[in-house]
Amino acid sequence: MRVAIVTESFLPQVNGVAGTVRHVVDRLTATGHQVLVVAPGAGPTAYAGAEVVRVRSLALPGYRSFPLGLPDPVVHRALDRFRPDVVHLASPIALGAVGLRAARHLAVPVVAVYQTDVAGFARQYGLPADRLIDRWVARLHRRADRTLVPSSASWDQLAAQGVPDLHLWRRGVDLDLFDPGHRDPALRASWTEPGHVVVGYVGRLAQEKQVRRLLELADVPGVHLVVVGDGPERGWLQERLPAATFTGMLRGPALARAFASLDVFVHTGEAETFCQTVQEAQASGVAVVAPAAGGPLDLVSPGRTGSLYDVTQPQALRGAVAALVTDPLARARMARGGQLAVAGRSWAGVVDELLGHYTAVLGGPSERLAA
């Protein structure tokens, strides 16, 4: 099959959209499919045997590491030259709209993957454009032949906006990389003295992740806080959490060691459509504390695979963590339950499932022109 992936983000960016596309390309090319990637900004022009076409972009103020794709005739020319059987839109917002128009002009069916709650992020920044963004994203998905959503919350969100033909498509996890066997006593010793419960956050340090809520954990007795990641909020957090360990961004084996060396993983953002770091913590054999909102609602079964806290209640994160700090048996039970829950979620299986969605739309694109 010939698959053209038009994505809002790709290497060298490190985020959920870019990571998912990378795993999709890895599996598709490894199983004999031909892939073209169209992505914004500078970066590699080839990956895993697939050509990567780069288009014009604009750096977003306050989020300069995320280039926003601009309308560019290169998209249409690239798709026309490649002659795909199906066009895959990865989290369509700006460049995805251009890819959708090109696919429609070429009469190629479109599978759109909803992955980023951009309107939710806008709300976190106090921007008044959240409703306009919601309508725009819903319009793009209504015009696709099939939309794949990562969670029940995302399904409900798009269904309420009239998006038809929704299908659940979760993310995989690298089970070779994230594993309890990577727990590193020496790394833990470099973080804190023996006897402390190590609680960690892993992810971008930005306002949309609501990382300032980590201050709730500043003085929980018996806790040492580790913050893995980077972003514009890092300086603010370091100033107010002087006892915490800030590692900066980690990747590959270093990230796997950090995950597995935690006792409790916490997440703070409530606008997550899926929350990949929850799965990575579970695969690493770590108890999870996550918001009772968005994607984590599907990933965490309270008391069995983790703990959920009420995002509307001040100090709820602190209370959930404090309860686990004094209950090592509960931590062990949740860690084991989480590991079992993700044991079958390999990227190979998830991408093979995606191929079924491609095949389903190959009968021919619809003529959706919904507003």
UniProtKB/TrEMBL annotation:
Residues 195-338 form the Glycosyl transferase family domain. Residues 14-176 form the Glycosyltransferase subfamily 4-like N-terminal domain. This is Glycosyltransferase family 1 protein. Keywords: Glycosyltransferase, Transferase. Pfam families: Glyco_transf_4, Glycos_transf_1. Transmembrane segments: none annotated.
